[in-house]
Structure formats: C-alpha cells, structure tokens
Amino acid sequence: MKALTIQQPWAGLLVLGVKTCETRSWNTKFRGRIAIHSSAKMSAEGKELFEQLCELKPDVFYEGSEAWELCTTTGHVLGTVTIEQVFSTNQRKPSNEGELMLGDYSPNRYWFWCIRPEVYQTPIPASGQLMIWEWDENQER
Description:
Blueprint: E1 2-6, H1 10-16, E2 21-24, E3 32-38, H2 44-56, H3 66-72, E4 76-88, H4 97-101, E5 110-125, E6 132-134, H5 137-140
Parallel strand pairs: 1-3
Antiparallel strand pairs: 1-6, 2-5, 3-4, 4-5
Helix pairs in contact: 1-3
C-alpha cells in the first residue's frame, strides 16, 4: 500500500477527517487509498497548533481522547484516506477557511483533496520516508 508521512498534529487531523487537504511542494499523479504515517517528531509549529486545538475544542482534544491520541502519536501509521484529486495552489484553493489555516497554500504548491478517512483501531509502528512510499502493512506487524 502507498503511504505518506505527515507531521503531527496534521496526520491525526487528516485521518480524523477534521482536515481534508494536504499541502505539498510537489505534485503527484497518484490517486486512491493511501496510508497516513505520522512522522517521528512533532515540530514546534505542530505543538503550538495542537495547544490551540486543545483550547478551542477541549471537549474533543483532551488527554486520553481518540483525537488526542491520534494527534500526538508519532512514528505510526494511523489510518488511511483516499486522495481524490490534486490541485495547484496557483489555480484554486479550498473554500473552507478552517482548511486554509491547516496548510501552506502559498504559490507554486499543491494540495491533495482527501476523502473517506479511516482510523486504524490500533496505530501500527513504522518508519517513514519522503514523498509517497510503499508500505508493507504485514511486514511492520
């Protein structure tokens, strides 16, 4: 299965369906189901965003909740989404203001529109890679 490594809390937000677009500096022809892997470390920017989410939605993002666990677990495949379409930021941007706050839509970038998020019951430990990579679910278990 193809996989994409994303920093936290963005990886968790994507598999939860809170975030539906993933921005990148590169384009892809890939469309279809893809595993979402959380990178090994959470950046300072990611920690700041997560703290804001906890303040804005304390009923969703509290210690021990599914959202908390999915947005703080690092180095694991969290679930899957389907990349439905890819757009250039030069041509269009999502209309959802919340979505615009969760990605980098500056010129000459791309955004992957992701649908049908699925959370794995138990995250699977895995080592990530750059770009879209091949993940063997059975090998990791």
